[in-house]
Design goal:
The protein has 5 helices and 7 strands. Helix 1 crosses helix 3 (48-56). The two termini are 13 Å apart. It has helices at residues 14-29, 35-45, 48-56, 108-122, 137-145, and strands at residues 4-8, 60-67, 70-78, 91-99, 127-133, 149-158, 161-171.
Amino acid sequence: MASVTLNSCTLSDLEVLRQVSLETFKEAFEAQNDPEDFGTYLREAFSMERLRREVTDPGSRFFFLHNQKQLAGYAKVNTGDAQSELQDPAALEIERIYIRKPFQGKGLGSWLLEKLLSLAREEGKKYVWLGVWEENKEAVRFYERHGFVTFGKHPYYIGSDRQMDWMMRLDLTASKTP
């Protein structure tokens, strides 16, 4: 995919990061959630203050995915204490991986995932893990196709609505980069 690039997100990108975060999260989950709970979640999770803290956290990194110079999606990864659950120094957490609707179905999600797996390998991580909403069957299948296996569950709150995420992992010593 010669016309596809991945670039680090910086503090100067906060407004764009906020916009793409809101857009992709709404597209993925708004219809399945209570409007009040969903609105509360959006205001908290994607506030400029919170995004600023996350972008400046040394254990968190955001990346913008561009296809033919157009913003196609983004990802967030965490290491060390920035991980949302395990906080294992041997692991990299993929906290967010979103492709904007007009760019879905073009292989960009797989391309982005492979780049993140390569990053984890370059950093000497033993495995990659993530949480995916148990009701997001398409995403669960996507990760299973890429070799991830479910190893647990953890609660995830959209406002006051307690939902359940499958925790999935991929052992990097057993997987290969194509």
